[in-house]
Design goal:
Length: 309
């Protein structure tokens, strides 16, 4: 009986000590399909919304210990300005062409045990373009605890250092790992946000005690496969929602919705070609507000002719 208990205990400890952190093996290039969507407007259907969508292939390859390259291949940008969800996305050919040279430059990033460190890129890369890469790196950010399946922590991400809840479930028969994490974007130590257009407003302490005007949350769902030194991300889906209700309306909150999907395609032996550019430290995974204004989605409240307006 003692032997059985000891065997079960050892098996439990062994299963808990498995490394579930994503791993990208050296001398290999991992190919993913990537899609990101950003929409702003009111949540009800049949009303105007504005936004953008990015579709691209993503290559990830190791160049040194704990240092990796990330490159976007054939990115396409689409814009939306119409009645949701009836009107379609329209290809933003000029914007895609204008940023093609920027997107062709791979970025470097530090990555160890699922945690993204410093980000490096040439000074010529726009901050806006670098933020697109940060959005992808934000998917790779996974603080895996070997001895716990359910836990909470303050996790750094593109939005700041926020309270994050993890749930990990392993399906040993199917050789799959299901991981879900949720972020409370109202509970952040260093939330990345910027107020503008409020030069003549005053903060109301009593109003904030009744309820926050800006609320946000994000959920991440992963399907992973155990590998030799970690895990391979097969699919990752991210949904982030921000609601702004300045007057505490019951159902009149404007919202910004962001979605990302990263899907594994294949592993190639060809390495990523690094151009002869001087890479400099460009911060971390945290979102950086850009100074350039390339093209911003603007919500059209009254639409009679969406294309003309």
């Amino acid at each position: 009986m003692r032997a059985v208990v000891l065997a079960l205990t050892l098996a439990l400890v062994a299963s808990q000590s498995v490394n579930f952190a994503p791993d990208f093996a050296a001398s290999k290039t991992y190919v993913y399909k990537y899609e990101a969507l950003l929409l702003g407007g009111l949540p009800e259907e049949g009303l105007a919304r504005a936004g953008v969508k990015v579709i691209s292939k993503v290559l990830i390859s190791a160049v040194a210990e704990n240092t990796y390259l990330l490159k976007l291949v054939n990115p396409e940008i689409f814009e939306y300005s119409g009645v949701w969800p009836k009107d379609p996305f329209v290809p933003a050919a000029k914007l895609t062409s204008a940023l093609a040279a920027q997107f062709s430059i791979p970025i470097k990033f530090e990555y160890a045990k699922g945690v993204v460190g410093k980000v490096f890129a040439p000074t010529a890369v726009f901050e806006t373009v670098l933020n697109v890469h940060r959005g992808i790196l934000n998917i790779l950010q996974l603080n895996i605890k070997k001895t716990q399946n359910v836990y909470e922590l303050q996790e750094a991400g593109a939005q700041g250092v926020c309270k994050t809840h993890y749930v990990i479930r392993e399906d040993a028969k199917a050789e799959r790992i299901h991981l879900t994490k949720s972020k409370d974007l109202n509970n952040c130590q260093q939330r990345i946000m910027k107020d503008f257009g409020l030069a003549y407003t005053e903060k109301c302490v009593e109003c904030r005690q009744r309820g926050e005007a800006l609320m946000g949350a994000a959920t991440y769902n992963y399907l992973m496969k155990p590998a030799a030194n970690g895990a391979l991300i097969l699919e990752a889906t991210v949904t982030e929602l921000h609601q702004f209700t300045p007057f505490n309306e019951m159902s009149g909150a404007a919202q910004m919705e962001a979605k990302q999907m990263l899907t594994f395609v294949e592993i190639k032996k060809d390495p990523i070609v690094v151009p002869d550019n001087n890479y400099v430290h460009r911060g971390s995974i945290r979102y950086e507000f850009a100074t350039e204004i390339l093209q911003m989605p603007i919500q059209l409240l009254k639409i009679s002719n969406a294309r003309a307006q």
